[in-house]
Specification:
This protein is of the alpha+beta class. Helices cover about 35% and strands about 25% of the residues. The chain has 16 helices and 27 strands. The strands form 7 sheets. Strands 7, 8, 10, 11, 15, 16, 23, 24, 25 and 26 form a 10-stranded mixed sheet that branches. Strands 17-20-18-19 form a 4-stranded antiparallel sheet. Strands 3-21-22 form a 3-stranded antiparallel sheet, with no helix packed on it. Helix 2 packs across helix 14 and helix 8 packs across helix 9. Its cofactor is Mg(2+).
């Protein structure tokens, strides 16, 4: 199948890997060295009309989620059972109730919602492009997405003949991608608005300050630093802290201003941590209630006038359970959150079928369903949280009734395999892949419910590809590789 195609000489592979590291497309190693991110030698292909549809519908999804996140009565009523079944979301719901009160005494925390969201899709062979999941917290890798587009442009320039041979369609054109700049623009816009809110009282002309909350000793720091550089170019100061560090460093200024010791006022906060118990766990605190202190640090931030992503509400609104509820309800019900029926139908057009876990649905799945057509998901973020095929029945059999609401069945998506093989490069070695499939994540940015990018809230894309035979496609946690997108008419 590949005898008529050229492999790249190893010297070229080394140069491309060096290009990646030079441009920050890398993971930090334990010894503080850098390892290049695995990548495809040529981009995936998508019909232009499909991509245009996704660019239109994804900001509408973000508008919907943004408004659901501020509908606190609905969040507490609709996610109560799930929060009892999933301990982590149970903690989030407790924090949400502390921040917003209950339906009898609603509170209004001072934080200003900044929704930085990545909506992940697969282009199913039969049903077209459908949503895999909403990512409303730690929705990163926009810089890597933009860099992948630049990497393939570099490939096309330096090794054109080889690049063209591995391209599916030599008439395809690269899809424009400014994910890094547009996400930075959205954040900077929000940060400047917060700074302006306080400028007269503070009589300050300082640049706004952005705080990224990160995990301790994580490896995906270069993607984060690329975003920081883009923010600095827009006149924003940037800082990085863990929850543990912040637990001793935050205080309150006049007008519910968020202050950081040794720095001063904070205008925007972006959580690249906070989606798992481990992000709030500090062994040395020796807490009687796990993760209490650091989760209260997150709640403390919510009580201040600061642009914040992700708010606790946003994290709840982008849960798998909320995705299921929005998928199951009729389009007209979206009117509660400000969508017209036409907008609602557009959103519904990309939502894949989902089912709750009940005794009846378990019996249906075991006795009637085509098990290969479904995937079982829990509420976890990132890779390793999906169950496939016959393993679904085994997992369902182990669940108690009290755990059902933490899980959902979702229509399994089977994206188009590439019509031509491609080369995947990992650890400086090239491997031919004959069955590569791709996942596309579209970024959006909204502040206080309004779009804050140059394209109506759309903020670029991220492509991750993997062999079709692999279930886990994360670049961190699976066999995923970084990729980009070209379009055909």
């Amino acid at each position: 199948m590949t005898t008529d195609k050229q492999l790249l000489p190893q010297t070229a592979i080394e140069e491309i890997c060096e290009w990646e590291i030079m441009h920050g497309v890398a993971f930090r190693q334990a010894d503080n060295s850098a390892r290049h991110v695995p990548f495809s030698i040529a981009p995936m292909t998508m019909q232009r009309k499909v991509f245009n549809h996704l660019q239109t519908v994804t900001p509408l999804i973000a508008k919907l989620v943004s408004n659901v996140a501020e509908d606190h009565d609905y969040l507490q009523a609709s996610l109560g059972d799930m929060s009892k079944a999933d301990p982590f979301f149970g903690r989030l719901m407790e924090l949400h109730q502390q921040a917003h009160g209950d339906s009898h005494q609603r509170l209004k925390p001072a934080r200003q919602p900044l929704l930085l969201m990545r909506t992940d899709f697969m282009d199913d062979r039969q049903f077209g492009a459908k949503v895999i999941e909403f990512n409303g917290i730690a929705a990163g890798m926009a810089p890597f997405g933009q860099r992948a587009t630049q990497l393939h442009r570099y490939m096309q320039h330096q090794w054109r003949d080889v690049y063209q041979q591995w391209l599916e369609d030599d008439q395809a054109t690269a899809a424009h991608n400014e994910g890094m700049e547009q996400l930075a623009l959205g954040i900077a816009t929000a940060a400047h608005k917060i700074r302006q809110h306080f400028t007269q009282a503070e009589q300050s002309t300082q640049q706004p300050t952005f705080l990224m909350i990160v995990q301790k000793d994580e490896d995906n720091v270069y993607d984060q630093h690329l975003l920081e550089v883009a923010l600095q170019q827009l006149g924003v100061n940037t800082l990085r802290r863990t929850f543990e560090q912040l637990s001793q460093q935050l205080s309150t200024g006049e007008g519910q201003r968020l202050l950081l010791d040794g720095v001063g006022a904070i205008d925007a906060v972006y959580l690249r941590a906070g989606y798992q118990f481990g992000d709030y766990w500090a062994p040395e605190l020796n807490e009687s209630i796990c993760c209490h202190t650091l989760s209260q640090t997150r709640l403390f931030i919510e009580k201040h006038y600061v642009a914040l992503n992700a708010t606790i509400s946003q994290q709840l609104a982008t849960s798998k359970s909320m995705q299921m509820l929005l998928t199951m309800m009729p389009a007209k019900d979206y009117g509660r959150w400000g969508l017209t029926i036409d907008e609602a139908n557009l959103v519904k057009s990309v939502l894949a079928d989902m089912k709750p876990i009940t005794k009846e649905n378990i019996a249906w799945f075991n006795n009637e369903a085509d098990k290969s057509q479904w995937v079982l998901k829990n509420q976890g973020e990132g890779g390793g949280h999906c169950v496939f095929g016959d393993d679904i029945s085994a997992t369902l059999a182990k669940l108690t009734a009290t755990e059902y609401d933490a899980w959902a069945l979702m229509q399994r998506l089977f994206p188009h395999e590439r019509e031509t093989p491609t080369i995947a490069v990992r650890d400086h070695q090239q491997t031919i892949v004959n069955d590569l499939v791709s996942e596309i994540g579209l970024f959006t940015a909204h502040f206080q419910g309004e779009a804050v990018t140059e394209a109506n809230g759309y903020a670029g894309y991220l492509i991750r590809s993997k062999p079709a035979s692999e279930n886990e496609g994360g670049i961190h946690s699976g066999q995923g590789i970084l990729d980009s997108l070209v379009l055909i008419d």
